[in-house]
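Bench notes, afternoon.
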Amino acid sequence: MKVTFSPRSKVIMFIVLLGYIIISLSGCSGSSSSEARAVLNVVLNTSVLSRGSNGQRAALPIEASKFHIEVLDESGREIDFIEVDRILSADSLTVTFSIMDTGSYRVRVSAFDANQVILGTSNEQVVISAGENTISVNSVQAAEVYFTPSLNLPQTKNSEAFTNFLSFDQSGIHLQSYCLWGKLVEDGKPVNAYLSIVQRLDQEIPDFGSYMFPIVIAGVGYSNEQTAHIIFGGSYGIAELTEAVVVTQPWHVYVESLNSSPTPFLTNTTEMMVLSGTMGQAGAQYEITSRTKDLEGGALETNVVVTDVMGFVNEGYGPASFFPQWLLPDQRDIIAGNTYNGSVGDYLKATCNPMTDQGSYYYSAPILQVDSFSITRNDQVVSQGHDGLLWMDVVFQSFDSAAQDVVKTATWNFFSIQFPQSNRALMVTNIHNDSNGGLSVASLFSTTATRSANGALNPEFRWNLQDIEITPVPGHTWTSQSSNLTYNTQYNITLSGTRQANLVVTMAWNEQELQINNTVKYEGYANVSGTLDGENVQGAAWVELQPAGHL
């Protein structure tokens, strides 16, 4: 393989040897041979490289510092890879691959800035014939999210790269979300259900064409047996237009928006930051602070400090923690067959199907011990103390046009279950959409599980599709007077196979529906009892129920 550059002067042509990295791939990818029948030149026009996003009309110039160039077969599996730095004195960059067989291939180019933040992806088809072939890349779209068995993506390589990925605004990805939820406990007072979120989601806005604007939602909510509903406040709007969003290092996310009158505060603020330790690693201490006008016009102030007992875990598959959120019918048929017996992991490991934009890069910190907290509303202290348990999710997701259609009809039942006495956690969910049906997932996490190359804990165990059963318990429902929606408030979760669990999840109180703009969902704190591996367990859970048509 060789890399060549075209200088701006166009007088002197030269070849610059770069310290590019060629990753040796195993399993589902092959390597080129010196007896290749064809060569493929991939020309990156770096001086004019721009980014749209799945049909965006505007082309945004980008300043890329590094490129990942992959050759994929027709199914999307990687067969060769080069990583290369950009030379600022060059207008273009040419990477040459040796190809063993002629035919149809795809070329995926991913652009990164100096901090390894992904700026976008180009994925183009090329038909390779004998001899020399050339493809030019002038623009990238929103970054693709896909399954890969390799360590090519920056966040997969080591713990420093993983922390970097979690801590920066990954501007090329459609959705980036930091969510925390759980219970805050003060002796002698009702338990508080608590949630906080900072999320950027690129969305089209009616009357503004196909351009996707970065919509930010940030804020905090709480409820208990006495509030009769979730009290929530925060920010919602277009980043840098109606909301100021600042991300600095080490991990520190700050969102601020102006309030409309009348208001107790001139601005709403939501802040998340690492106080000590390293983002993503056990022992890190985080602080979450909000000062906001709530949806009822009240003044809501919260502060929570937690310590990560377990460290971050891989919710998904492969070194990048790719989490499928739906299966296409042909994928489901193959996975459910005798070859894979319902194991999504075995299917991905064997086929390396990238499932491009069918899922997310999904990481969690399942056991966050509360060190201190305070909740103040209208200058009155609601609750404060030094006990409780939170869970954090960090999710990155992109949507091609097909994925956007699927997501519109998505509903889910989600249970994040904590067993702090044994430092274990269980995530169980069923996601459903109209076009592709349901997908059930159940994973067990513990501090004694193996770790991936970036230091994140792998699941101790995953259950196959047919071994997961989530069943509402008859007679346990609640109907919201606000939305008129009825929710199940108790569930049996049965996990069978080589590891078994029989759990009952019961909402701690019924009134835990949340309405923000047009979104309605039921989420809050629950108690858990039952057996895991034949042993009696008691735990806590956060439950999220997304009713159809209200996403």
